[in-house]
Amino acid sequence: MLGRLNHVALAVPDLAAAVVAYRNTLGAEVTEPQALPEHGVTVVFVNVGNTKIELLEPLGEGSPIAAFLEKNPSGGMHHLCYEVDDILAARDQLKAAGARVLGDGNPKTGAHGKPVLFLHPKDFFGTLIELEQS
Ligand code: CO
């Protein structure tokens, strides 16, 4: 079921500062910020050849990463995103195996314009997993 690692996501308290650090200090190629109100985040991607790093900053009230940043005020790793060929088949297979899909269980459109789902971190050893249809 599981395909490539699409990205590693880091929650950051200050996206502009994170962009400067990745672009200037680390010398990486960074995309322009993209607001995703449906997900409650603003996102940029750092291209690193074999995968991407997604930098997330809270957007609006009740952002799903606000509580994470309260616990981790300087930021930290928020989730891993794996590609799957068929997100609905993957969801049904995971649910049948007892894994919990977050939200209403229906895919939302992610930062790449493709359907995504999130799996409960307690079912995967403390790591939030995003699945993106490839
Ligand atoms: Co992501």
Description:
- By secondary structure, this protein is of the alpha+beta class.
- The chain has one domain: Roll (2,3-Dihydroxybiphenyl 1,2-Dioxygenase, domain 1), CATH 3.10.180.
- 20% of the residues lie in helices and 36% in strands.
- Strands 1, 2, 3, 4, 5, 6, 7, 8 and 9 form a 9-stranded mixed β-sheet that branches.
- The relative contact order is 0.21.
- The model has no long low-confidence stretch (mean pLDDT 96).
- Bound molecules: cobalt (II) ion.
- The site of cobalt (II) ion has 6 residues, from strand 1 and strand 6.
Please identify the top-level CATH class: Alpha Beta
Q: End-to-end distance, in Å?
A: 12 Å
Mean pLDDT: 96
Q: List cofactors, ions and other ligands.
A: cobalt (II) ion
Q: At the third CATH level, what is the topology name?
A: 2,3-Dihydroxybiphenyl 1,2-Dioxygenase, domain 1
Helical coverage, percent range: 10-25%
Unreliable runs, pLDDT <50, ≥5 residues?
Answer: none
What is the helix tally? Answer: 3
SSE topology string: EHEEEEHEHEEE
What is the count of β-strands? 9
Domain count, please report it: 1
Instruction: Tell me about the largest β-sheet.
Output: 9 strands, mixed
Shape: globular
CATH architecture descriptor = Roll
Provide a brief overview of the structure:
This protein is of the alpha+beta class and 134 residues long. The chain has helices at residues 15-25, 66-71, 87-96, and strands at residues 5-11, 29-30, 34-36, 41-47, 52-58, 76-84, 108-109, 115-119, 128-133.
